[in-house]
Design brief:
Phosphorylase Kinase, domain 1; 13 strands; alpha+beta; 5-stranded mixed beta sheet; 6-stranded mixed beta sheet; 347 residues; single chain; 21% helix; Transferase(Phosphotransferase), domain 1
Length: 347
């Protein structure tokens, strides 16, 4: 919806992106550049990604363009996005709007610039009248599942958690502010996020629900929830979204670490193969497979029992732990169940 009329507005610039194809082709400038930002109108806000497709310089200007460093391209682009009149655009509520700009003959949608842009020497401002625009939902935005999708899980407010340390990318040891009990938090908005990651989170929640109370399989504590970070109106009554999964913390550490430190003999390790096999049998009887069995995905509890973690069954597969017969499969998760089951057993 178009922004409501109000004189109170501001822009908060976020991350700048540009393609790297020009480095491969040896051309002077990228074929696309984008700027993420938050546009505010009083008590409303919109997340926007402004993307320009195309190049600015003609072939006769190639030498000059080659001398422009990335920081200068970023400065020029940020100056340009600050000149756009977002008030006139049909922005999308409660998500990330991507404003795509390109020189596309035949299209009649053109952006408006603010009055102060008229005398600007900015190269993008100069060609703005020839640019058409379209608005779409940004396909690579971080997508947060609604807490309504998993009503059986207890909800804990994200703001009530304090980070203790980072275990791995997107995985943290945390404690609630009101109780110094350690848990593991797997976040949705992880480094190098890809839209597939949200499907992995959903699948892990499904399996956590499926295997509640099953020995040898990681157990859930709650889902960490927050308000939708893209929420346009503060007064919106949207349900909270899932920002992460809160899991039991297993104090014995990973089997990978124990093997690396040559401490296996400190434990009653002969029971571990049976415990792992029993946990996997629960997966297989439920028609599920783990697909990434490896020492890093096995942890020990305080009593020295092993526990399988990372149980989405779709998050990834470590090449060095693939069964030989699927070592060169491009899509191992699409294999028939029997082939995936045998891979679990082999690993």
């Amino acid at each position: 919806m178009p922004a409501p009329p109000n004189v109170t507005q501001s822009l908060e610039l976020k991350q700048y992106f540009e393609s790297h194809d020009h480095l491969v082709r040896g051309t002077p400038e990228p074929s696309s550049r984008s700027q993420a930002l938050i546009y505010r109108f009083k008590d409303h806000k919109w997340w926007i990604k402004v993307t320009f497709l195309g190049t600015l310089y003609q072939s006769s200007e190639t030498e000059a363009a080659q001398k422009i460093p990335k920081r200068e391209r970023r400065r020029e682009y940020q100056e340009f996005v600050n000149r756009i009149n977002y008030r006139t655009l049909p922005l999308l509520d409660d998500t990330v709007s991507e404003l795509v700009l390109e020189n596309s003959p035949g299209m009649t949608n053109h952006i408006d610039l603010n009055v102060e842009a008229r005398d600007s020497a900015n190269p993008l401002v100069k060609i703005a009248k020839s640019l058409s625009y379209r608005i779409q939902e940004e396909p690579f935005r971080v997508t947060y599942p609604s807490c309504c999708e998993f009503p059986s899980f207890r909800c804990i407010d994200w703001a009530e958690l304090e980070e203790e340390d980072e275990i791995a990318d997107g995985v943290h040891r945390v404690c609630p502010k009101t109780a110094r009990v350690p848990y593991v938090l797997k976040v949705v908005n992880r480094p190098l996020y890809h839209p597939h990651d949200t499907n992995v989170i959903r699948k892990e929640l499904e399996n956590l629900e499926r295997f509640k109370g099953v020995p040898g399989i990681v157990q859930p504590v709650a889902i960490a929830v927050s308000s939708n970070p893209y929420m346009t109106a503060r007064t919106s009554d949207q349900p909270p979204v899932i920002s992460g999964i809160l899991l039991e913390f297993y104090s014995g550490g990973s089997l990978q670490r124990i093997l690396k430190e040559d401490r296996v003999k400190e434990y009653n390790w002969t029971r571990w193969p049976i415990q792992i096999g029993t946990a996997l049998s629960h997966f297989h009887r439920a028609g599920q497979t783990h697909m990434d069995n490896k020492p890093a995905n096995v942890v020990l509890d305080a009593q020295g029992n092993v526990v399988l973690i990372d149980i989405s069954g779709s998050g990834g597969i470590t090449y060095s732990w693939r069964a030989p017969e699927i070592s060169h499969e491009r899509s191992p998760f699409d294999l028939p169940f029997e082939a995936r089951l045998l891979h679990d057993v082999w690993a």
